Amino acid sequence: MKLQLALDRLTRDECIRIVKETEKEMDIIEVGTGVIKEYGMAIVREMKELFPDKQIVADMKTCDAGKHEALQAFEAGADITTVMAFSANSTITDMLNVASDKGSRLMVDLLEVRSRERVKELHDLGVDLVSLHVGKDKQAEESFNTDLFSLLKGFEFEVTVAGGINLDKISAVVQEKPDTIIVGSAITKAEDPKKVAARMRAYL
Ligand SMILES: O=C([C@H](O)CO)[C@H](O)[C@H](O)COP(=O)(O)O
Fold first, then answer.
1. ipTM for the complex?
2. CATH number of 2-201
3. The pTM is what?
4. Alpha helix stretches (DSSP H) within the chain
5. CA-based nearest residue to 105, from 83, 133, 134
6. Going residue by residue through the chain (204 aa), what tens digit of pLDDT does each one get?
7. Is 77's C-beta closer than 6 angstroms to any atom of ligand 1?
8. Residue 163, ligand 1, Cβ within 6 A
9. Ligand 1 near 170 CB (within 6 A)
10. Of 36, 105, 129, 151, which one's alpha carbon is 20 to 30 angstroms from that of 159?
11. Cα 184 to ligand 1 centroid, rounded to whole Å
12. Domain-wise residue ranges, the chain
């Protein structure tokens, strides 16, 4: 099981400091959507240059113009880029093709998806990496709940999970055996990110 650090609502300097403090515990570094909106592809490029041994996710959350945005992410050094599950099938197919050409990966963000029909369509399109995700705003009502795994039951995917996962919740999530656990604010907003990251890693 891998651990992915999500960098959201941080400055460039905070991103770099937190990754340096926690990189020993992390397999994957995610440059968050808001950070990309602030600094553009330059921050993705910089993170790959600073941390070449880590897989880099550009959380583009693309929903249209898939070919262009996938190229932007991969040419900046991302190993994985993201697309929203509600996007047109052509957007997802275009991005899968770019990922295949570049030897990189596409992750489909299942934010707000509750329909197994859509999951089947994604599977049939050739999607192999998905993210079960409870968004930041929704977390005010509910954070990640392991019931969400039922959406994917019977489908073959590489599965990542995200949405307010913290030290209280990680044990229940680990029991569901996802491939990757994504943690953002529980680490990035902690007083001691390094200590929380090490405690999280110990659960995997
Ligand atoms: O994708 C994310 C979210 O939509 C904010 O942009 C986060 O990276 C993901 O939810 C993980 O962060 P936490 O929920 O703070 O753990």
1. 0.96
2. 3.20.20.70
3. 0.97
4. 12-22, 33-39, 41-50, 66-75, 89-102, 116-125, 170-175, 185-188, 193-201
5. 83
6. 999 999 999 999 999 999 999 999 999 999 999 999 999 999 999 999 999 999 999 999 999 999 999 999 999 999 999 999 999 999 999 999 999 999 999 999 999 999 999 999 999 999 999 999 999 999 988 878 899 999 999 999 999 999 999 999 999 999 999 999 999 999 999 999 999 999 999 999
7. no
8. yes
9. no
10. 36
11. 6
12. 2-201
Q: Which of 3, 82, 182, 185 to mutate to test the pocket of ligand 1 (most atoms within 8 A of CB)?
A: 182
**Which amino acid, 32?**
G
Q: Report how far ligand 1's centroid is from the alpha carbon of 18 (Å).
A: 16
Structure tokens at 147: 């019931």
185 lines ligand 1 (CB under 6 A): yes
Amino acid at 34: G
C-beta of residue 12 within 8 angstroms of C-beta of residue 47: no
